[in-house]
Amino acid sequence: MKRILLILAIMFLGLTATSAQEKQHLEFEGVTIDGTVNDVVAKLRQKGFKPEKGTAILRGKVMGKKAKVTVASTPDGNTVYLVLVDFDVKKSWENVRTCYESMKMQLRARYGDPVLYKEEFDSPLAEADPIKALQYGNCTFICHYQAPGGEIILTMTKEAGVQSYFVDTSNSVSLY
């Protein structure tokens, strides 16, 4: 009987310790993606980011490149789950490709190889004019990285830009 009570006590302590552990959150530029929009924006401002419009949009350098940063919260507005980065890129294929490749190399150095990526044109005709292919959705350039506490997605946009999404897994909103 003592043995059963001891096993139950050890199991109870193990469950208590597991539930007491905090969830791990993704960091963006040294700021944990957790808390309210105002909390995260205040911490980013302390890191040198400047407010642009409203309370959730800032400007600053991300991975050495000028960028616009948007802090997004869950639908209830209480918890930040995403930081969206729009890199300042001149709208030529060379500039977009160079920015994308630079960010990809930095993310790979920080988080390892992407868990998923696709970098291709839909056809040789699309590859002949890559900026138009990008604008018309005839090519895909995307890398998806796993990181402690979340995911980072790097992509080229139809607007001939480069974006990065820093998604905190613990706070993320289910899309399904």
List keywords for this structure.
176 residues; alpha+beta; two-stranded antiparallel sheet; 5 helices; 10 strands; 34% helix; globular
Q: Regions with pLDDT < 50 over 5+ consecutive residues?
A: 1-21
Rg over alpha carbons: 21 Å
What count of structural domains?
A: 1
Q: Which percent bin holds the helix content?
A: 25-40%
**How many extended strands?**
10
Q: Globular, elongated, flat, extended or rod-shaped: what is the shape?
A: globular
**H and E order:** HEEHEEEEHEHHEEE
Mean pLDDT: 84
Q: Strand share of the residues?
A: 25-35%
Quaternary class: single chain
Q: Please state how the strands of the largest beta sheet are arranged side by side.
A: 3-4-5-6-10-9-8-7
Terminus-to-terminus distance: 48 Å
How is the biggest beta sheet arranged? 8 strands, antiparallel
Structural class: alpha+beta
- Helical segment tally? 5
Brief overview, please?
This protein is an alpha+beta fold. The protein is built from five helices and ten strands; from the N terminus they run αββαββββαβααβββ. It is 34% helix and 33% strand.
